[in-house]
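Extended Data, panel c. Modelled sequence:
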Amino acid sequence: MSSDLDRRRLLGRALSFGALGLLGGCNFDHPNHPDLADRFLHLLSRWNDRVQAALFDPATLAPTFPAAAITRPPRFNAYYTIEHVRVVDGALWHLDLFGAIAEKRPWRLADFRAAPQASQITRLVCVEGWRVIGQWSGVPLGWFLRRVGADLGARYLSFRCADGYHSSIDMASALHPQTILALDFLGQPLTPPFGFPLRLRIPTKLGFKNPKSLVALGVTNRYPGGYWEDQGYNWFSGS
């Protein structure tokens, strides 16, 4: 790891802890401001987002691993149990496009299969603390955005899923070379629990920023939020 990267990470942590120290000087019990804590923590989270975005280096790759390091069996994660996984009909499925995109024709599974593919063995880190290593393959998101004429100067990408989940990422992270629209997991087409037919795989962010079973993708300058982000999770949530 380079000393420059060490300094960047140290700065990010120091800034975050310094901001948390401000909490001690705030009177959250003031009767005229019952929601002061929520508002302050929301502002602090957005400030942390800006710090993380400033420290993000689009040229720095997430660690990759040999096949022997792959976690077996793979671990399922979602905001529901595996018994409630939404099964998508691949023959009828398509990805809708919206927002600042020139070519909004929906893409079907065969379109993604015919596109350039990339493969990676990377680590997925959950906000709860556990981590797994898996092998994913699919279409580089940067290639896809250029192919459909997306506005690469826009700030956000928004994702909607078949199970009602939604999330969003910044454009710099979307264009990172390891960010893919994954079709395969462990050398086989995705299964429903792991995001069939298409999921976002972004190893530079936490697991909840990797939405599964995508049904729509948009490009926008308006902050789109997300399922967990709207409940207080840090939005950027990346390295």
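The radius of gyration is 19 Å. This feature is highlighted in the accompanying rendering.
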